[in-house]
């Protein structure tokens, strides 16, 4: 008789073990299948990695991203942008504020003095970089002088960048 007193007899121990083992295996299989379904249901689709940023190529053919300084006059160093604070750096343009330090070259460049001109800088026209065709580089730089411009430069000027 069983514990309820209703006259049923308990199955043999071997049958109980077999049923227990079967139940455990069924539960384990269900848990694994459930875990697989919920894991695949919550997995985000694979995303393309973020593209490399467009670069600014300096006088030494080095790629720069958001540089603090940029040498404009590669040959003699008499014109450079300093204290650049980048507002944006995107796939099409980049903008910053900073200071253009320009040597007045009076009476000649070695004896000249550097003057500071507040400027807004805009980089644009990205193209593949010849040395690294898989990398985009900015090909123009626009300087917008926010106070006065160095003589005889206009207050708004755009230059092509080599590289």
Overall description:
With 163 residues, the protein is of the alpha+beta class. It contains 1 helix and 8 strands; from the N terminus they run αββββββββ. A hairpin with a 5-residue loop joins β1 (56-57) and β2. It is elongated, with a radius of gyration of 35 Å. Residues 15-42 have low confidence and may be disordered.
Oligomer: single chain
Task: Report the helical percentage.
Answer: 10-25%
> How many DSSP-defined strands?
8
Count of individual helical segments: 1
Helix-and-strand structural type:
alpha+beta
User: Would you list the SSEs in sequence order as H and E?
Assistant: HEEEEEEEE
Q: Please tell me the overall pLDDT.
A: 81
Neighbour order of strands in the largest sheet: 3-4-5-6-7-8
Question: Major sheet, described briefly?
Answer: 6 strands, antiparallel
Described by the principal axes of the CA atoms, the overall outline is elongated
In terms of per-residue confidence, which ranges show pLDDT below 50 for 5 or more consecutive residues?
A: 15-42
Strand proportion: 35-45%
Tell me the radius of gyration.
35 Å
- Separation of termini? 95 Å
Would you kindly provide a brief summary of this structure?
This protein is an alpha+beta fold and 163 residues long.
Secondary structure topology:
Layout (H helix, E strand, L loop, with lengths): L12 H30 L13 E2 L5 E2 L5 E2 L7 E11 L4 E10 L10 E16 L2 E14 L10 E5 L3
Antiparallel strand pairs: 1-2, 3-4, 4-5, 5-6, 6-7, 7-8
């Amino acid at each position: 008789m069983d514990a309820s007193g209703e006259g049923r007899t308990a199955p043999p121990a071997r049958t109980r073990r077999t049923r227990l083992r079967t139940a455990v295996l069924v539960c384990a299989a269900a848990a694994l299948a459930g875990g697989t379904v919920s894991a695949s249901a919550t997995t985000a689709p694979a995303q393309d990695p973020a593209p490399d940023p467009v670069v600014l190529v300096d006088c030494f053919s080095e790629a720069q991203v958001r540089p603090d300084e940029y040498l404009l006059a590669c040959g003699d160093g008499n014109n450079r942008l300093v204290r650049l604070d980048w507002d944006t750096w995107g796939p099409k343009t980049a903008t910053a504020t900073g200071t253009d330090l320009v040597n007045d070259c009076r009476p000649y460049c070695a004896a000249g003095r550097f003057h500071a001109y507040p400027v807004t800088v805009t980089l644009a026209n990205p193209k593949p970089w010849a040395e690294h065709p898989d990398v985009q580089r900015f090909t123009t730089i626009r300087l917008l002088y926010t106070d006065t411009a160095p003589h005889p430069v206009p207050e708004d000027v755009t230059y092509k960048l080599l590289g």
